């Protein structure tokens, strides 16, 4: 979790604004290496509530190849 929070902090401090075709601005950085040691378990974001059913629905949607939700 610490690595993820470091990444978010880095993007907020060093990111450049990128506007896309929808007009939604995003922050982006290039070349940031995010490494996680899987021997310590699977990294799961714990800063927000994640519902298992939503994860399964999104995974099934992704695997179906659909492009519209």
TrEMBL record:
GO cellular component, one term: cytosol
Residues covered by the Thymidylate synthase/dCMP hydroxymethylase domain: 2-69
Keyword NAD among record annotations: no
Presence of the UniProt keyword Disulfide bond in the record: no
Gene Ontology MF terms: thymidylate synthase activity
Pfam families found in the cross-reference section: Thymidylat_synt
Membrane-crossing residue ranges in chain numbering: none
Sections of the chain in a coiled coil: none
Gene Ontology biological process terms in this record: dTMP biosynthetic process; methylation
The entry's keywords: Methyltransferase, Transferase
Cited PANTHER family: THYMIDYLATE SYNTHASE, THYMIDYLATE SYNTHASE 1
Protein's name according to its UniProt entry: Thymidylate synthase/dCMP hydroxymethylase domain-containing protein
Species this chain originates from: marine metagenome
Lineage: unclassified sequences, metagenomes, ecological metagenomes
